[in-house]
Amino acid sequence: MIWIRIGWIVTIVLGMSIFWIIGRTLAGAMRISRMRERNRLFGERPGYGNDPVSEEGISVVVAGFGEQVRIEQWLGNRYTRYEVVWVVDLRTDFYARALMDRYAMTAVTLPTLGELPCEGLRALYRSRERRYRRLLLVDSVADDLPGAFNCGVNVASYDRILAVDGRSELLPGALQTLAIEWGEYGEHTPLAVGGYRVFGLEIGLVRRVSAALRMTFGLANDCVLLFDRDALIRVGGYRDPHNPDGELLRRIRHASHSSPEMLPFAVLRTGNNSSLDQAPIGGRTLFFCLLFFLLLLLFFVLEDGIGGFVTFLLIVSVAWAAAAAVVAISVGAARQAGMPFRRGELWICPLIYPVLLIGRLLFRKNFLSS
Amino acid sequence: MNGVLVAMFLVCLSVVLIALVVADRDDFMRRREERHRERFRDPYVRIICDYLFAPDESSSYPCRLPYGNLARSRMLAAESLATLCISTSGGDPGRIRRLVADSGIGRLLLRRAGWGRASHRLSPLRVLSELPLPEPVVLRAGRFRSRREPLIGWYALLIRTANHPEKMLPELESHPRTLTPFALSELLMQFKRGVVPVACESLLCNPGVNVKLLGMALIRHLQLEGVNDRLYDLVGDPHPAVRRAALDTLVVLKSPLTKRSVVKAIAALSEHDRRRFYRKLSAEGYSLQALCRLQRLEGDNYLGEYLRQLIGSYKKRLGV
Question: What pLDDT does B221 receive?
Answer without folding.
Answer: 86
